[in-house]
Automatic annotation (TrEMBL):
It comes from Streptomyces montanus. InterPro entries: SAM-dependent_MTases_sf, SAM_dep_MeTrfase_SAV2177_type. Residues 236-276 are annotated as: Disordered. One of its GO terms (biological process) is methylation. This is SAM-dependent methyltransferase.
Amino acid sequence: MINSSVPHSARIWNYWLGGKDCYEIDREVGDQIRELNPEIVHIARAQRAFLKRAVTYLAGEVGIRQFLDVGTGLPTFDNTHEVAQRIRPEARIVYVDHDPIVLAHATALLTSTPEGATDYIDADLRDPAAILEGAGRMLDFDQPIALMLLGIAAHVPDDSAYGIVQRLVDALPSGSYLVFCDSTEVFHPKEMRAMVAQWNQASDNPRVNRSPEQLARFFDGLELLEPGLVSVAQWRPAPSEAGTAVEDEPEAEDELRKAEVDPQEVDSFGGVAHKA
């Protein structure tokens, strides 16, 4: 059951991305956090631009045709399947989230090209066995898979997050990739700490910031591609790329275009790594 009186992280993030699937309480909390940390909206949009660049690279240059996107969030624009299937119409994408808000909107994630397929699993990152079991119904674990973990490990605030991610990576076949990013306190530590404190006070889904050194542990045993673990806006910025138009959301589209080409450093670090 959806409670519109309690703020939800997925709806707040959707609000920052320029989406409209949010309630007044989400906008209020989102604005409070934005006052504490004006960079948060830029972080959200830079992270979405990072997703687009990473998926474009993996589907285009590498030829990956399978994606497992955990911590999907509410559908907005340039979702993983849209980016991947523009390049590889036969791509198969499995989305994972445990938020009832996201589940209610999952049909928007299940559109697909005739050649490809999409699926949605109602599961928690903390239960990798359930994720892998569900993903196995659509994805071929004998073929390379791109595992997408964008801004989700922060919601497992203790060190168990490392074991959870390792469990998922271990299940991937050789030739697979990990696309990962999460929040840091490198450029605006005071604001990022205040943001997390406000978020944890208002939301039912607590989170934590980690240092780049702590985030690097998620890539243990993998080969980080150039330029390594960096601020997501610095990961292969592509000025020739442009955001995808979305009806009735010209402002959101414009902001995504800016994030796509703006190499400004933001407090979200990420990278793409190969599993040999």
